[in-house]
Amino acid sequence: MSAAASASAGRPSNPWLIAVVVSIATFMEVLDTTIANVALRYVSGGLGVSSDEASWVVTTYLVSNAIVLTASSFIAKRYGRKRFYLACLALFTVSSVLCGLAWNIQSLLFFRVLQGFAGGGMVPISQSILADSFPPEKRGQAFALFGVAVVVAPVVGPTLGGWLSDNYSWHWCFLINGPIGVLAFGLVWSLVKESDETRRERQELKRRGIRFDIVGFLAVATFLGALELVLDRGQTEDWFGSNFIILATAVCILAFLFMIPWELRHRNPVVDLRMIWSRQFGSCFLVMMATGAILIATTQFLPELLQTYYGYTATWAGLALSPGGVVTMTMMFVVGRLTNAVQPKYLIALGAAIVAGAMWDLTRLFPELNFSFFVWSRVYVGLGLPLIFIPITTASYDGIPPDKTDQASALINVARNVGGSIGVSVAQNTLAWREQFHQNRLVEHVVPSEPAYQQTMRTMSQYLQTQGLSPADAQSGAIALIGQTLQRQVGFLAYIDVFHVLMIISAAAVPLALILRNVKRGGGAPAGGH
Fold first, then answer.
1. Does residue 169 sit in helix, strand or coil?
2. Between these two residues, 77 and 438, which has the higher pLDDT value?
3. Closest-CA residue to 272 (of 403, 124, 395)
4. Is residue 202 very low, low, confident or very high in pLDDT (cuts 50, 70, 90)?
5. What confidence tier does 511 reach under pLDDT thresholds 50, 70, 90?
6. Residue 502 maps to a domain
7. Is residue 340 included in any domain, yes or no?
8. pLDDT at 1
9. Which of 96, 122, 165 is nearest to 30 (CA)?
10. Full residue range of the structural domain in which residue 474 is found
11. What's the pLDDT score for residue 351?
């Protein structure tokens, strides 16, 4: 493409600089989905609240983030993509600093909601800015850089959050966004240019009097908000044994049933359901949900496993994930080039198969595993996820008209967030259910009449007596050790079941990928401003 053509399309003279700037802002936003997870006990102690109340710091962000994603497309088109992006970036930066300065749990949750609202508008608009800034043949590589931010940030989050909390305070998990946000705001303000086509489209929307689908947005917001609450709080609230969960489920179902006919009939729906029900985009949507489930669930449960059963500190648990993040970063650029030579559906199927194999590898858990086992396990995931993420972004745009690109970006990111919530919920419930199951089975064999139990008691009691304990204390100690050993075995077996479930989720993405149609190679999104 000539320089003149590029300029006429509104593309900057140096699009890679734009890609770096928007990727930094996106990295900062996605980082906040996981950075607070390991800091919750510090938040609980610092603000004098229970751990259950502190967990809403994560929930409120995810809920508000997912809700705004559905509205970002229209708002960006109606008021200008650059203007909307800068407003989101400014609000995100200010609310991040306010989170770090929060004086009680109520103020923290309020600022966290604002942060989630702002962050929900940043990610899809970042993708749209990249689509406008690059010619079709370069978009695969541009999305690779963007993908580094989205995929690596959740891996860095727990490590950085734990290190900041251990060495400074939990406040810095949020305050760190302040200077980065100010820098990103200045760079976006000076570098990103709005295309003439985008300005014309905005004027056309005003002339035609097209209004925001406020009723549809409220229905979608209610549905997603209630769904997030049910998924996130179900385990701690005893699911349908809780009136709160029953009410949230009823609200979720009613909002969904109202949303479908309203959005199908509305002239300018906030969510184009026909797009989701199409074979191409619908399959991409489901695959991205599975990808989000694996990415978020493993990022949460692997550090938890390492700290609970292997005695790792938060820092070392994070370091076990870090090599996988480096591999992911490298693979993003490799896959960005591969998308120009290989059909996305084959790359996606290969990536899903590799991730499924990595989950199967984790089912070989036993107490003596060393650090390198978990490093390599994460490396395998780091190899597979980019093979899904970049091609699915490319394939999802295939056949999407230019005026629907922003909404496609938003919906793909909704899929990742909702998929992550579902993945965490499924993993949590599998862990709790299978812990109870395995404990019941193992306890059946831990009875005084069993010869094996009697032999174990004698051996442990004798050993403890050699350590200076009295016979009575040695017997009590032996009983305690048997109980600890049983609980440890129960935990390992339950985590093995969790990774089996995640393996099934990954494997399910393979046939979904293979039903995608072939796309024109080299195109990441429709050209032009939207």
1. coil
2. 438
3. 403
4. low
5. very high
6. no
7. no
8. 38
9. 122
10. 437-489
11. 92
- 98-156 tens-digit pLDDT: 998 988 888 888 999 899 888 887 877 777 777 777 766 666 767 777 777 776 776 67
Contact yes or no for 520/280 (Cβ under 8 A): no
Contact 223, 256 (CB under 8 A): yes
At CA 263, angle to CA 413 and CA 403, rounded to 5? 55
- Is 60 exceeded by the pLDDT of residue 38? yes
User: The whole model's pTM is what?
Assistant: 0.77
Same structural domain for residues 189 and 114? Answer: yes
Report in angstroms the alpha-carbon separations of 318 from 36, 299, 311, 418. 13, 9, 13, 24
- Which residue is listed with tokens 């890679």? 16
Asked whether 63 and 187 are in contact (CB, 8 A), the reply is no
Last residue of a domain, one of 172, 191, 212: 212
User: What's the N-to-C CA distance of the chain in angstroms?
Assistant: 19
| Three-state secondary structure of 350-365 | HHHHHHHHHHHHHCCC
How many domains does the chain fold into? 3
Domain match, 109 and 245 both: no
How far is it, in rounded angstroms, from Cα 140 to Cα 338? 8
Residues 198 and 135 in one domain: yes
Quote the pLDDT of residue 410: 75
159 within domain boundaries? yes
Instruction: Of 58, 234, 75, give the one whose Cα is nearest residue 161.
Output: 58
| Distance separating alpha carbons of residues 231 and 208, to the nearest angstrom | 40
| Statement to judge: residues 126 and 147 lie in one domain | yes
Q: How many CA atoms lie within 13 A of 81 on its CB side?
A: 31
Q: What is the CA radius of gyration of the chain?
A: 25
- Please state, in angstroms and rounded to a whole number, the distance separating the CA atoms of residues 76 and 79: 6
CA dist 149 → 23, 146, 389 (Å): 6, 5, 12
Query: Is 105 in the same domain as 221?
Result: no
